[in-house]
Amino acid sequence: MAKVVLENVFKIYPGDVTAVHDACLEIQDQEFVVLVGPSGCGKSTTLRMVAGLEDISRGSIFIDGKKVNDIPPKDRDIAMVFQNYALYPHMSVYNNMAFGLKLRKYPKAEIHKRVMEAAEILGIVDYLERKPKALSGGQRQRVAVGRAIVRKPKAFLFDEPLSNLDAKMRVQMRAEISKLHNRLKSTMIYVTHDQIEAMTMGDRIVVMKDGWIQQVDTPLNIYNQPANQFVAGFIGSPPMNFFKGRIVREGNAVFFDEGQFRLAVPEPAAGKLAPHAGQDVALGIRPEHVHERGERPEADPARVVPATVEVVEMMGSEVYLYASTGRSNFTARVQAACRRQIGDAVEVVLDMERAHFFGGADEKALL
Amino acid sequence: MKRALGWLAAGAIALGFLLPLLWMLHASFRPEAEVFTGGFRGLFSFRGLGLDNYAAAWRRAALGIGLLNSILQVAGILGLGLLFNSMAAFALARFEFAGRRLLFGLVLVLIILPVEVLAVPLLLTVRDLGLTGGYGRTLAALVLPFAVKAFNVYFLRQHFLALPRDLEEAAVVDGAGPFRIYWSVALPAIRPALATVLVLDVLTHWSDFIWPLIVCTRAETRTVQLALANLFTQPPIQWGDILACAVLVTLPVLLVFRLAQRHVVASDLGAGIK
Question: Number of structural domains, chain B?
Answer without folding.
Answer: 2
